[in-house]
TrEMBL record:
NCBIfam families: nagA. The active site is at D299. The gene is AMDHD2. Its cofactor is a divalent metal cation. This is N-acetylglucosamine-6-phosphate deacetylase. InterPro entries: Amidohydro-rel, GlcNAc_6-P_deAcase, Metal-dep_hydrolase_composite, Metal_Hydrolase. GO terms for molecular function: metal ion binding; N-acetylglucosamine-6-phosphate deacetylase activity. GO terms for biological process: N-acetylglucosamine catabolic process; N-acetylneuraminate catabolic process; negative regulation of UDP-N-acetylglucosamine biosynthetic process. It comes from the Eukaryota. Substrate binds at A159, N240, A241, R248, H277, L333, S334, G335. Pfam families: Amidohydro_1. Pathway: Amino-sugar metabolism; N-acetylneuraminate degradation.
Length: 414
């Protein structure tokens, strides 16, 4: 019995955890699928159980024809449900807990709370309150913060407040440390690679295991390639807040097919697949050019999950008009109100890709980007038992973290 990764996503049945420390789950085969076994929060290779321990599953649960897939990982989410991660408040922790709990229903089992360009005082107040933690019934796991700015281009600031944008001073890395206050909980930093002294910063961040992403930038292709050669591995919301593709100098977009990427290195790129930020044709172009690099992100703001109206995005006021979000009084897009499961379904429809490919873009690829594919983003043996039950239209029916059911659609009848 084997269910290896998202590419083997099958129609199955799954179990409930048993008593004490012998947590075992069994996903009993239907005519179309295989079995998924879970014990003590990990996906289990049943051969050891069968042949060495002479054991069997304690509890079985029928998935009733659902698809099993790894939990989604959102590496760029600014907030949601009235909570703005870039707004310094005394109850910030309760806000991040609320978002973590709410996104379970959309299949997100791990996320990177994202802060947009802010004054140093905001970073100093908020970042100490972000704790890397495992997910569970309390909500999705926190993988570390994504700091989008303030070292970005004013020309491509998007919804970021211009008065907070910074360049690097003489001692660039120390300047970054002084701005953020601490790197303890930081997982991703988005910066513009054309800024003077950025190479030094990219190298120092990479040494510390922090992912560097290129975005909000007017960099040309050679500047982007140099940044990758120094350690950058990600592109923040491809096509948005960067120079448009040009056939003589494709800019950051050109990294998708560059022949100057170091051997053994893969460049990933975020895509806001909400039907607003990127035309379906552009989504198809990116996917066909570099399918193994696509990482779906929501770029969700505080207004996600709420009615249209006025909300915040850090220092800015934004307005929600249908599925569009704008800086108040302008037509400048300012994040998204799409949920991750919606992005997955839109990506599937827009590109005509396989279900496995669509699911990988929201699970396996972000895990690979962060270097955690040994435990997240797959259904491999010994990986964390963070997985979803989906119907054939990829609507989430139930969400599990470490083998525990943390959300279930009532209509599922289980």
């Amino acid at each position: 019995i084997a269910l290896c990764n998202v590419a083997d996503c099958v129609h199955c049945r799954v179990s409930q955890p048993c008593r004490e420390n012998r947590t075992e789950w069994l996903c009993s085969s239907s005519s179309r699928g295989e079995d998924l076994w879970v014990r003590e929060g990990k996906i289990l290779n049943p051969e050891k159980l069968f042949f060495d321990e002479k054991g069997s599953a304690d509890v079985q649960l029928d998935c009733k024809g659902c698809i099993l897939a790894p939990g989604f990982i959102d590496v760029q989410i600014n907030g949601g449900f009235g909570v703005d991660f870039s707004l310094a408040t005394d109850d910030f922790r309760s806000g991040i807990d609320l978002v973590g709990q709410k996104i379970l229903s959309h299949g997100v089992t791990s996320f990177c709370p994202t802060l947009v360009t802010s004054p140093p005082s905001v970073y100093h107040q908020i970042l100490p309150q972000i704790r890397i933690r495992n997910g569970g019934a309390h909500g999705a796991g926190i993988l570390g913060a994504h700091l989008e700015g303030p070292f970005i281009s004013k020309e491509k600031k998007g919804a970021h407040p211009e008065h907070c944008i910074r360049t690097f001073e003489e001692n660039a890395f120390q300047d970054l440390l002084a701005t953020y206050g601490s790197l303890d909980c930081i997982r991703i930093v988005t910066l513009a690679p054309e800024i003077k002294r950025s190479s030094e910063v990219i190298q120092e961040l990479t040494k510390r295991g922090i992912c560097v992403s290129l975005g909000h930038s007017v960099a040309n292709l050679s500047q982007a390639e140099e940044a990758v050669q120094h350690g950058a591995t990600f592109i923040t919301h491809l096509f948005n807040a960067m120079l448009p593709f040009h056939h003589r100098d494709p800019g950051i977009v050109g990294l998708l097919t560059s022949d100057k990427i170091p051997a053994g290195r893969r460049v990933f790129y975020g895509m806001i697949s909400d039907g607003i930020h990127t035309n379906p044709a552009a989504l198809r172009i990116a996917h066909r050019a570099h399918p193994k690099g696509m990482v779906l992100v929501t770029d969700a703001i505080a207004g996600m999950g709420l009615a249209p109206g006025r909300h915040t995005l850090g220092q800015q006021v934004v307005e929600i008009d249908g599925l569009n979000t704008y800086i108040a009084g302008t037509k400048t897009l300012s994040g998204s109100v799409a949920t991750m499961d919606t992005c997955v379904r839109h990506f599937l429809e827009a590109t005509g890709c396989s279900i496995e490919t669509a699911l990988e873009a929201a699970s396996l690829h972000p895990a690979q980007l962060l270097g955690i594919e040994d435990r997240k983003g797959t259904l491999n043996y010994d990986s964390d038992a963070d997985f979803l039950m989906l119907d054939d239209s990829l609507h989430v029916q139930a969400t599990y973290i470490a083998g525990e059911e943390v959300w279930r659609r009532d209509a599922l009848g289980m």
